[in-house]
Specification:
The protein has about 190 residues and is mostly helical.
Length: about 190
């Protein structure tokens, strides 16, 4: 049961209505996350602007989706895991790449380092070690990309936490649960 229900477009304030119209035009749907954010036009506008700005950065759409999956898994956000699994497929990620990203793994060294850094940011609340940053740099991640990893992680923390508070109803196909062995490879104590 949701704690904060999505607001119907016609019941939103004028600014939120315009923002929701833009989301509908861009996506062909209005996800519950956006309709719930629409209770505050300031929050919805901030989210959309932050997301749009990051889409123009150095990290590809596929990499940003992989970060969203790694962060969503680290925070156990079913809404974001479901949404970004669906969006990941739309941007060309395979089922295997989606699963790997949820476990903060990738087949190429640089993306793997990006996902591991993103997961470390979540797990350490941003207090990553020198070794974490050095590992990313060794894998070829530039300072600009490290900056964008932090920003993309923060964007996804916003949606993860908001969905936890609101208990947003998932309106995407449900993400497949990880098996016990997959969950452990993603972070169980050894």
């Amino acid at each position: 049961m949701t704690r904060i229900a999505p607001i119907a477009r016609d019941n939103a304030d004028e600014k939120s209505q315009a923002l929701l119209d833009g989301v509908q035009a861009k996506l062909g749907m209005t996800p519950n996350l956006m309709s719930t954010f629409a209770h505050s036009s300031a929050a919805l506008d901030a989210y959309l602007k932050f997301s749009d700005a990051l889409s123009k950065g150095d990290l590809s759409g596929k990499t940003r989706e992989k970060i969203a999956l790694a962060v969503g898994q680290a925070n156990d956000c079913q809404y974001c895991l479901s949404a970004h699994s669906a969006i990941g497929k739309m941007v060309g990620l395979s089922a295997e790449e989606i699963l790997d990203a949820r476990m903060a793994n990738a087949s190429d060294t640089k993306t793997d380092a990006i996902l591991k850094l993103s997961k470390q940011i979540v797990e350490t609340r941003g207090k990553v070690s020198d070794a974490d940053v050095a590992a990313a740099r060794t894998a070829g991640v530039t300072d600009a990309e490290i900056t964008e990893v932090v920003a993309n992680t923060a964007l996804n923390l916003l949606t993860n936490y908001f969905n936890h508070v609101a208990e947003t109803e998932v309106d995407f196909p449900a993400a497949e649960p990880l098996s016990a062995s997959e969950t452990c490879s993603a972070g169980c104590a050894q």
